[in-house]
Amino acid sequence: MRFLQKYIFLLLIMTTTLTFTLIGTYKHKEHSDFTEITISEGDTLWQLANELSDGKRIDKWIDDVMVMNDLDSTMIRSGDRLKVPQVKISTAQIERYELAGDGK
Predict the structure, then answer these.
(1) Of 83, 87, 65, nearest in space to 74 by CA
(2) 14-34: b or e for each residue (b if 16 or more CB lie within 10 Å)?
(3) What is the mean pLDDT of each run of 10 residues along the chain (104 residues)?
(4) CA-CA distance, 37 to 29, in Å (whole number)?
(5) Whether this model's pTM surpasses 0.70
């Protein structure tokens, strides 16, 4: 008991540090797999979600994209580059979107 009283502050700091480390690691891992696309004229997040969500709920996919890109609203503009969760993209989708690093 005396040991606990003596080192309670140190134990509290270590526990807090460990908690924040685990949270930071989880958040980093959560969004580490992404593809960056360039928005075309007329694109909306809902349209992109329908095409790229890969079975995920559309509202959840949009929320994830907004967090990944630090967006305050769902408004996107032509020419914007967005990070989207990585999915298997078909050939038709590859032709429709310009992926970051295509060198075009």
Answers:
(1) 65
(2) eeeeeeeeeeeeeeeeeeeeb
(3) 77 88 64 80 92 87 92 92 76 55 56
(4) 20
(5) no
